[in-house]
Design a protein that fits this description.
The complex is a heterodimer. Chain A is an alpha/beta fold. Helices cover about 25% and strands about 25% of the residues of chain A. The chains are: A alpha/beta, B alpha/beta.
Chain lengths: ~250, ~120
């Protein structure tokens, strides 16, 4: 397969995240991504992957590549994006996260957590407290991701933000944490982030939108030169192996 | 003691919810981890934090907290203020550090859950 350049926004929420709108339904997310010229999105709701399969199906029908993942909150309240190619690995990882996530959602305070199918039908509501942090330290989350059968892609989310970032919560990135990349949010440029948070210089960097509404999808993106949108290819691009590249 | 007494006594700047300062303060809690506040703050508590993300409002509403004091002059995010207005959760700002402010609140009679 030949190498090609794809435009990717790896940090997109759906209506499952309590802080996202109902308009982030699978079809809407896919349509908005295609309108923005994206080839690949990463679906990562807070502590859950229950809408991933629906978005994948809607994406497949419309020619959008979809990487399935989650945005996990560690016990230190640092957000970590974890992706798998294999749906069984993702769902197994979700089970593990659920076993370390406590409390029930309060829809009034935190918002609805809608589970949808690929045609935007509502199939249920997740009643777990997805906005909460798990009881798992960041190291344990990464270790669980690495223990899956297939390869995982692990990225520290919005490391430049004050809230919910590994640097904001822990002061610096622990050396023991094996990350594939760090994500810089839409609030600053990559150069600014490298300047203000020197830790960023030690990792490959991606930019993503952290979209909670359709209008934000693709606001920040990363271009990968890869054969396809798989975890293995993206990891090669992040480390510049075999002619693959990541540019943001 | 009601919130308004605290606002006056400590010269707090009210950033959101000025119409909800007549609530009784049942006690105080200080933490910068939302999950910790979710687990341990009590109904009617005043919450002291440096956290400025809009999720503090959701947590305060869920726990029935009477208000949030941001320390060290921290400026709440725009979304945070909007959400606080919507939920009727007062957000106040002190120029003091958390340690100093909590010490003064304690002296003024606000207690933690373990005090009695």
């Amino acid at each position: 397969m030949a190498l090609r350049r794809i435009k990717a926004d790896l940090h997109v929420h759906t209506c499952l995240s309590p802080c996202s709108g109902l308009d982030m339904s699978p079809r809407e997310v896919v349509n908005a991504a295609l309108q923005r010229g994206l080839d690949l999105i990463g679906v990562c709701d807070h502590n859950s992957a229950e809408n991933v399969l629906a978005v994948k199906k809607a994406g497949e029908r419309n020619g959008l590549m979809v990487l399935g993942g989650m945005e996990v909150a560690s016990s230190e309240e640092a957000h970590i994006l974890v992706f798998f190619d294999d749906d069984d690995d993702l769902l197994g990882f979700q089970d593990y996260i659920y076993r370390h996530l406590y409390g029930r959602n309060d829809e009034h305070a935190f918002g609805l957590q809608v589970i949808a199918d690929d045609e935007d039908g509502v199939t249920g509501f997740c009643d777990r407290l997805l906005i909460a942090a798990t009881s798992l330290p960041a190291e344990a989350i990464v270790a669980a991701a690495r223990a899956a059968k297939s390869e995982s892609l692990v990225i520290a989310a919005h490391v430049d933000r004050q809230s919910f970032s590994i640097i904001g919560q822990l002061g610096f990135i622990p050396h023991a944490l094996v990350l594939d990349a760090v994500e810089v949010s839409a609030q600053m440029t990559v150069d600014e982030a490298k300047e203000r948070f020197p830790d960023c210089r030690n990792y490959p960097i991606i930019t993503g939108s952290d979209a909670h509404g359709p209008e934000d999808i693709g606001k920040r993106f990363t271009c990968f030169t890869v054969e396809d949108g798989s975890v293995a290819e993206i990891k090669k691009a992040l480390t510049g192996r075999d002619g693959r590249k990541a540019v943001c | 003691m009601i919130l308004n007494d605290i606002v006056k006594e400590f010269g707090l700047e009210v950033k959101a919810g000025p119409g909800h300062l007549d609530q009784e303060v049942t006690g105080g809690y200080v933490s910068d981890l939302l999950s910790d506040v979710l687990a341990h703050a009590e109904d009617g508590n005043i919450w002291v934090t440096l956290h400025i993300h809009q999720n503090i409002v959701a947590v305060a509403a869920h726990k029935g907290l009477c208000g949030i004091i941001l320390v060290q002059g921290r400026d709440p995010e725009k979304d945070t203020v909007a959400k606080a207005e919507e939920e009727g959760i007062p957000i106040m700002v002190s120029s003091l550090s958390a340690f100093e402010l909590v010490g003064r609140l304690y002296k003024a009679g606000i207690r933690g859950a373990e005090a009695d």
